[in-house]
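Q: Hi! First time doing this. I have a protein sequence and I read that you can turn it into a structure. Is that right? Here it is:
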Amino acid sequence: MSEDRTYLVIGARGFQGAAVARALLAEGLDVRGFARGSGAPVAGAPELPTVLGDLAELDDVRKAFVGVTHASVVLPLVYDVGLVQTYARNVAAAAREAGVTRLVHNTNTPLPRQVTPYAAYETRRTAEAVLADGVLPTVVLRPPVYLDNLFSPWNGPALINDGVLAYPLPEGRRVSWLSHADLATATLAALHGEGLEGTVLSLGGPDTVTGGELAQAFAAALGRDVAYVPLEADDFEAGLRTVLGTPAAAGVAGIYRWAGTGGDAELFVADHDEVEHVLGVRLTPINEWVAAQPWSTWAAVRSNGAGPPDPVRADHGG
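A: Yes, that's right. Below is the predicted 3D structure, encoded as structure tokens:
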């Protein structure tokens, strides 16, 4: 691999972006992050140099892109269409000016075939249209729901102590659950693969399961009974509101409201064979992922009601 490549990870403080940054660093590559806020280090990658700025300010984005050849982009949990469009336009302009040779855009959620009334989908559709405009050498990854959301202070204790797997999706909704580590693996492959410009991939793990089947997989891996409990979208949103505030909580909850209507039944389903073939990667089965997690972390922690996955760090794709 050429030594003159420089990688930018937009959204490096989020769990998804941090996973990508760590994977790039593990390859010994020249990587920098872009994030808003304080100079707090990226989780698991304190050595990552990070440019602080605002995606709404073109000059900030230009500074982040100086000398960059490859970029991984996941936008923050903002659901104002005009603002998200500004973010995407600034990223596109700065990337073109820098002469970026590959940009991988993680939409943070799959996109329904039809237009919906939910900003969680439509802002991401808008951003994709800007970034995958046929001018930038872009690869688009549309992830489903993350397994890592289940290893959290909201789900972990309930799983270990009570055998309850609670999530705001109907029990019968089929999902190709994906891990952050596999997202990072897929992103690196999309950054480096030959001839992938213009590709749009529905990303997902090798196991597509209903809620009940997911609980069975957890039960087999954990050696205990596990029951799936579908959360109501209103309850999920209420839990998010205390962390994100009203607009962002409503935005994230929209992902699950649409799923609850039964619209686009295969929305969270991906053809993992196609993904593995196109990207040349192996994705992790659910049982392997569950077995690899340190679930004892939650053994002494009581559940607080199976609230939302941690949304503060752009962790929703669901």
